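Assemble and predict.
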Amino acid sequence: MTGRSGARTGEGVGVLPVLGFVAAAFLALPLIGLLQRTPWRRLGSLLTQPEATEALRLSMTVAVTATVLATVLGVPLAWLLARTRFPGRSVVRALVLLPMVLPPVVGGVALLYALGRRGLVGQYLDEWFGIALPFTMAGAVVAATFVALPFLVITVESGLRSLDPGYEEAARTLGANRLVTFWRVTVPLLAPQLAAGAALAFARALGEFGATITFAGNVQGRTRTLPLAVYVALQTDREAALALSVVLLAVSLIVLVLLRDRIVGGSS
Amino acid sequence: MIALEGRVTRGAFTGELDLRVAAGEVVGVLGENGAGKTTLLRVLAGLTPLDEGALRLADVVVDDPANDVFVPPDQRPTGLVLQDPTLFPHLDLRDNVAFGPRRRGVAKDAARSLAHTWLDRLGVGDQARSRPRDVSGGQAQRAAIARALAAEPTVLLLDEPLAPLDQDGRTLVRRLLRTEERRADRTTVLVSHDPVDALALTDRLVVLEEGRVSQVGTPAEITRRPRSAFVARLVGLNLLEGEAAGTTVTLPGPAELVTATRATGAVLATVAPHSIALYPARPDGSPRNTWSVPVEDLEAVGDRVRVALGGPIPLVAEVTPAAVADLALTPGQQVWATIKATDIDVYPA
């Protein structure tokens, strides 16, 4: 018996590591491809071209604004999902996850028919307030918030679920109402999950392409964020595209480092 | 003031809660795990709503599901201390204690100096600026007690509050609860497994069994006539208050107890009923504590018989049914009772 199962394990040992290493190489190869073609010496001048600095600045503004919006809207939603019971809660949870699995282009089309100038709500925004989101930076922020929100909600919700309700109950018995308890006790105790959720949301917002180009368009200085600038540059100036890609890669790595204790280094 | 009559169901547990406590009174709640003690406190604090019935605190209806009344915990006059201190980990001890006064609208500086005063009273003033994770479990519990008291509750709910404390901490908190914090306008409910707390701190005891109140009475009544073996085991202790000088404790009676441990000043002495021996005649080589006393009452509890004794020191002894037969014990009969000095536990009062 022992010999036979040992032989089986032996067979597995041959195939599994090979497949595992193939997968790892598959993930690493594009990075190597990108880095080995990056014009490192000209990186500085490529990134200080007006188109590049504009895209960088715009992307930062859009991603930071989207992260703030996702936090302001996402934390209460996470609280609703984790701490209250209401009819249709499972539907709301599914809605929260939808932007994570929905192709971003479809999200962009959907946003267009909701908040676009002829959209369900957008027509009134235009008619009553003169607000038109497509082809504006605000539109890019809406697109980025749409795709980033789920990351914040699910991270904060899982944090809320693992939080000992005893702290919040103690605050209530000491005279703090729900809102004060939330601000003075829940939010500070959730700081690590909030930071992780915000970092993930920021990374997702920064990289948003499909929904942005579909809903907000590709207007230089207004909606042409870094990913869109990479796409445009790839057809005209490949070195500029590589340089901007390296910036996005660097930001992703920084977010990973910030999160390493929470996700990557979870086992150690 | 507490007036509660209601029902609460949590999964398989159903509590038929019935409790009346006057202002100024301290009530002890006894019961085995799962009897509903914590549920009772949660109902009073507003952390668990009643399913049926009504609850009044200080003459205000705070929970009455039939009439759609529910006052949330922050608007109730209740303060809660649990066995787990649940101090806010992101605040130092001072700001933990200042949390309650701040919610009542006390300005930040005033609330902090109030918090300092409370931490000093609980003997942890020197840790005011420490975070909860940097202090010991006992220090954290002292701060948790300070935090609850600083909010000036008129209904104080304590769930095994002394369990995490060391001996000094227990003495300190017992003294605080017996003296300054025992106020005419405050109602206190104390859940405890510690017989000394149950007997020494409370005016009345409520025994919970399987979600129902099974017995209510003064500590003396319950010690004399525990209705279940569990209660007998828990509080079937003789508790005597007196003045200690060396190994002698003078009791109001007047009578004297000789103890094995030295103490000074006001003390509480406890004697387990099974360590009181009864003899038909004065025993030879008599132990230091020997009295001739009348038998007042006999009651079987489980496989033992509790014998209430009269005389200068009212005591309850516990003997086997066989001993009752051997001694032919009947009410009114004189017997000799003895206690070994080493069987007497002495606590500072």
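The domain at 54-226 of chain A is CATH 1.10.3720.10 (MetI-like fold).
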